[in-house]
Amino acid sequence: MGKSVKILAVITFVLLFCSIYLIFSYAQIEKTMLEVQKIFYFHVSSALTLFVAFGINFVFSITYLIKRRSNADLLAASAAEIGLVFCTITLLSGPIWASTAWGTWWNWEPRLTTTLILWLMYVGYFILRSALDGENKKTFSAVFGIIAFLDAPIVYYAVDIWQEGLHPDRGTKWDLETTMQHTWMLTLLAFVLLCVLLIIVQYKQKKSEERYDIIRQKHLGKLL
Amino acid sequence: MMKIVTIVCGLIVLTLFFFAARVPVSLTSDEVSRGVSDAISEENISVDEDIVEKAVLKSVEKLEKRQSTRLKYLASAYIVVWLVFMLYVIRVAMQQRKLDQRLSQLEQDTEESVE
Questions:
Q1: What domain range includes position A135?
Q2: Please, where are the H alpha helices in A22-133?
Q3: How far is the C-alpha of B40 from the C-alpha of B98, rounded, in Å?
Q4: How far apart are CA A116 and CA A151, in angstroms?
Q5: Is A16 within a domain?
Q6: How many domains does chain A have?
């Protein structure tokens, strides 16, 4: 691991500790939902972070199709994997909050449904990657990554497009207390940094695996 | 590196429990009866102290039960979040271990073929 990655890891974990402290000791308790509202800090932050990760996947998928560089494919795959982790967290923490806030664990409302579709599409992305090999794997997964990302703006604008659902639309004023705003901003920053850190770690591992395969091929070639 | 990340994740979970455990302390019946008598004497109202005390105790009980349910939901949400992270970190660490094993095997094979 490089020195810069280690520094990033330290900053990320310090911010995560601080965010947990702020969530439970500094942020005011919301008046309507009371303590349960504290799920908001991790739920919304992970929901926004998944867009960052899938956005990176989208950018590097395009880069791969233009420049045909293996590094771009590895970065795209790493970002998709981390995006899937954050999407899973969003889909799991959401129903727990919803069960107390809306009185139901799951509702087929636009944002929930489109987020589930997004999750399924990226699961499909990895199924496709495991089914193919070589150049085909890289090209097809890049194309699939671009198509899958088209669902991301639909998730974001879902409530505005369908004009229904339990999630608040983008026009809703949040009226967060100052302590809540500070806490949320710090948690969001910590999550974005964690996402970047995990993408780098995953990328380096995939890169090592690729190098291993190349060396092994050469070694086998020499033996034959 | 992955060992450190796993340890830090564990520490985060412990920190989470430490702060999450700092829930408001429940009121004892003594505290409730003292509070009721203080309020009645301060306001100078003529009411049956026992009935008021029972009513207040009952409402405190209900509020605490509701709060406990809310805290259970809050704790389960945070447990789920960190469990997903932990499982992911463990998976990455296992992949790394496998890769290290394969590398050392390749090194061994290369040495043998040179010999």
A1: 46-214
A2: 39-67, 70-101, 110-131
A3: 72
A4: 10
A5: no
A6: 1
The CA-based angle A170-A175-A180, given to 5 degrees, is 110
* A35 interface with B at CB cutoff 8 Å: yes
Output the CA torsion A78→A190→A37→A98 (10° steps). Answer: 0
Question: Which of B78, B86, B114 best tests the A interface by mutation, with the highest count of A CBs <10 A?
Answer: B78
Q: Say if A14 falls within a structural domain.
A: no
- Cβ neighbours around A136 below 10 Å, total: 11
**Residue A39 counted as domain residue:** no
Q: From CA B2, how far away is CA A64, in angstroms rounded?
A: 29
| Residue A6 maps to a domain | no
Which 3 state secondary structure label does DSSP give B45?
coil
B102: nearest CB among A23, A100, A212? A212
Is-contact A87 A195, C-beta < 8 A?
A: no
Over the stretch B2-51, which tens digit does the pLDDT of each residue have?
666 667 767 776 666 666 655 555 566 777 777 777 877 877 777 777 78
